[in-house]
Design brief:
Chain A: One of its GO terms (biological process) is amino acid transport. The complex is a heterodimer of chains A (290) and B (387). With 290 residues, chain A is an all-alpha fold. Chain A is built from twelve helices and two strands. In chain A, strands 1-2 form a two-stranded antiparallel sheet. In chain A, a hairpin with a 2-residue loop joins strand 1 and strand 2. In chain A, helix 2 runs parallel beside helix 4. The longest helix of chain A has 31 residues. Chain B is an alpha/beta fold. Chain B has two domains: 188 residues, 3-Layer(aba) Sandwich (Rossmann fold); 141 residues, Response regulator (Rossmann fold, 3-Layer(aba) Sandwich). In chain B, the strands form four sheets. In chain B, strands 2-1-3-4-5 form a five-stranded parallel β-sheet, with helices on both faces. A four-stranded parallel β-sheet of chain B has the order 7-6-8-9, with helices on both faces. In chain B, strands 10-13-14 form a three-stranded antiparallel β-sheet, with helices on one face. Chain B is elongated. The N and C termini of chain B lie far apart (92 Å). Classes of the chains: A mainly alpha (290), B alpha/beta (387). Chains A and B meet through helix 1, helix 8 and helix 10 of A and helix 2, strand 7, helix 7, helix 8 and helix 9 of B.
Chain lengths: 290, 387
């Protein structure tokens, strides 16, 4: 039982990060039909920028906030300079553009920051909390709680504010949204900034546990994309559920079967789901209603 | 008129060509040394200090008058740790640049891609990579400076045996380094009467190793755990290890022999044991240690010139360059075959990795004693020596 709980804690912590990356994918995909493979880079920027801003003596909370702002600016620039000029291009072209952007951001980070691994101090110490014979780090609770808060805030923003509704409208039908006076280019830019902020927050929350480096975004983007596909591309609930399931699968796979096949297990299950349910767990239908 | 102009131009051109030829003949040709290193890319933490070290010491040697009165010309290409690029650059060094010897690559994969070239063209090559396959079996033109992963295993098992541990757990990274060291450890562990009762792995960029460590924790009779690995993995393993409250000793490999490991692992690093080159503890070596002068000098020079903390990886480049220069001096020429022969006779060379004694069937020339056994205490290394 203790073993089971330990695997579950481990899976949920890692899964929460995948879920946040997948949520970023979803947000941009809904607003602009772009699958943004630079999503992992936002996570990296969040962690790295906090480390470096804090290193010059800025208090940690301020550094974290500045890092989020930095990521949002990068997100806006990405939209303005790379996505917007290619508007109307087909999906594959846009994907290639975002992959290019991700390579660019990674290289830029290796120059602006450095090539070393970095870490942040855990927010509330690193004495593990024992629960049913399993140990969980306080920071893992931060990650889970942070993810939960983000999802709630995002939901409130989408359904309770004019701006959020504008995003939903643009997602549903860009032309119709423009006809009712929504500046869709502005709204898509906003979704890039929002998704960058979510990525950056994930990066800040998780860096004390997983460490960060200029190239951590690649793997996160891959796992986040898998989570988004698994849950159903475009579905926010799917992104969260997909991320958590993949995290749990990896942890249980490594624990009960073999750590050799950990990465394979998650992908085999995803392939299976996509084979039998091509739209993922929460398919397209829910997207139209978001 | 035009004819006259053409004539003058011709005269001018031939005069300058003549002048150029004269100056070139006046100074002796430089000795060309080529290098292929992973200066950028995922293994840049190896290649970056290596390149800086080579440049720094080549400049120093040239300022002091060069080797046998000839300047050294260093040509460095960046392979990014990619075997294909390494092979291309090695070909370029040999065919176009016509170098006398090659230093590199930083990683085992890229080195192995270069080995056939060194052999075919008969150009001596000193690798800065870790795995034992580079020099075992012995290849005529291939040498290397870093300790092997097999030696690290032996050093760790010696310490375990001295402490009476007979059943151990193992958690290895699946990257090149971790994989190779895991195999070497499994191969050699039997000779120390130690049994590996739990054998887990993790991906090089995994963020959480608690499932694997939980399995090891729940395996009966584990008296110590060894973690062959590299990069951020071992730091996370160390943190997860303390988080799970596993109370048997944790051994790390020489792959974490840097200050950044201590920073990344934080307090969890306390009590971790690892084998490492003397360079890491240069200041703490006893004064009568034969390596003391070399490692302290290298450490001070590197840290003053770059402002970065010294790493054992740069030390491997230092050893390679110094051995090569000594071999060129001994051979008295820049003929690749002569340099090879001289390199093979290297004996009593004190480098950052230890005392090197090469022979026709040992192109590494180091033994297990070149490692120091260290324990991390309060954010620093302590030499725990033989027990």
């Amino acid at each position: 039982m203790a073993e089971f709980l330990q695997f579950a804690f481990s899976g949920l912590t890692v899964g929460a990060v995948y879920a946040l990356v997948a949520l970023g994918f979803t947000l941009i995909y809904n607003a602009s039909d772009v699958v943004n493979f630079a999503q992992g880079e936002f996570v990296m920027i969040g962690g790295m920028a906090t480390v470096f801003i804090a290193a010059v003596g800025v208090p940690l909370p301020v550094a974290a906030l500045s890092a989020i702002v930095v990521a949002m600016i990068v997100g806006l620039l990405l939209h303005r300079l790379a996505i917007e000029p290619a508007r109307g291009a087909d999906a594959v072209t846009l994907i290639i553009i975002t992959i290019g952007a991700s390579i660019f951001l990674r290289s830029a980070a290796s120059f602006i920051f450095d090539k070393q691994f970095h870490t942040l101090p855990p927010f509330t110490g690193d004495t593990p909390i024992l629960f049913g014979g399993a140990a969980i780090l306080p920071q893992s609770l931060w990650v889970l709680a942070g993810g939960f808060v983000i999802v709630i805030l995002l939901w409130a923003f989408m359904s309770r504010t004019i701006l959020g509704k504008a995003i939903l409208a643009t997602a549903a039908n860009r032309l119709a949204a423009r006809l009712v006076g929504i500046n869709t280019s502005y709204v898509v830019g906003l979704s890039f900034a929002l998704s960058a902020a979510i990525g950056a927050i994930a990066g800040i929350l998780v860096t004390p546990i997983t460490l960060t480096r200029y190239d951590v975004g690649t793997l996160l983007a891959l796992k986040g994309f898998a989570a988004a596909m698994f849950g159903g591309m475009g579905s926010p609930i799917g992104a969260i559920v997909g991320g958590l399931i993949i995290g749990l699968l990896e942890a249980f796979g490594a624990g009960y079967i073999s750590s050799e096949y950990k990465d394979a297990i998650a992908f085999i299950v995803i392939l299976g789901v996509l084979f039998f349910m091509p739209t993922g767990l929460f398919g397209r239908k829910s997207v139209e209603r978001v | 008129m035009t004819r006259l102009r053409r004539l003058t131009r011709l005269a001018a051109v031939s005069a300058s060509a003549l002048a150029l030829g004269l100056t070139a003949a006046a100074a002796a040709d430089p000795i060309k040394i080529g290098s292929v290193l992973a200066v950028t890319g995922p293994a840049s933490f190896l290649g970056d200090p290596e390149e800086k070290t080579l440049q720094m010491y080549v400049d120093q040697i040239n300022e002091a008058g060069g080797v046998d009165g000839r300047q050294i010309e260093l040509i460095v290409y960046d392979s990014g740790g990619d075997p294909n690029k390494a092979r291309t650059f090695a070909t370029r060094l040999i065919e176009d640049d016509e170098v006398s010897a090659i230093i590199g690559d930083s990683t085992t994969g890229a080195t192995m891609a270069m080995v056939p070239l060194a052999q075919d063209y008969e150009v001596p090559m000193i690798s800065l990579a870790g795995a034992v396959v580079i020099i075992d079996p012995v290849k005529e033109y291939v040498f290397k400076t870093p300790h092997t992963d097999r030696m690290a295993c032996e050093k760790i098992f010696q310490d375990m045996k001295a402490n009476g541990y007979t059943k151990i757990g193992m958690i290895s990274g699946t990257g090149g380094f971790g994989k190779s060291m895991r195999e070497q450890c499994l191969d050699v562990v039997g000779t120390y009467d130690i049994e590996v009762v739990a054998d887990e792995t993790y991906g090089p960029s995994d963020a959480d190793m608690t499932p694997q460590l939980t399995k090891i924790k729940n395996t009966d009779g584990v008296q110590a755990v060894i973690n062959p690995g590299f990069g951020q993995g071992p730091a996370i393993v160390t943190r997860n290890y303390r988080q799970l409250g596993i109370d048997v000793p944790l051994y790390q490999s020489h792959g974490v022999a840097s200050k950044s490991f201590i920073e990344l692992a934080g307090d969890a690093a306390n009590g971790v044991r690892l084998p490492a080159a003397a360079l890491l503890v240069a200041d703490k070596l006893p004064d009568d240690d034969p390596q003391k002068e070399v490692v302290v000098n290298y450490k001070t020079t590197y840290e003053e010139a770059t402002g970065e903390p010294v790493s054992t990886f740069g030390g491997h480049a230092y050893d390679a360059l110094m051995m090569l220069v000594a071999a060129i001096e001994k051979a008295g020429s820049d003929d690749p075959a002569a340099i090879r022969d001289a390199l093979e006779q290297t004996s009593g060379f004190i480098g950052t990795a230890g005392e090197v004694n090469m022979s026709a069937d040992d192109h590494l020339g180091l033994d297990v004693s070149a490692f120091e056994m260290l324990e991390i205490q309060d954010g620093d290394w302590v030499i725990i020596g033989e027990n």
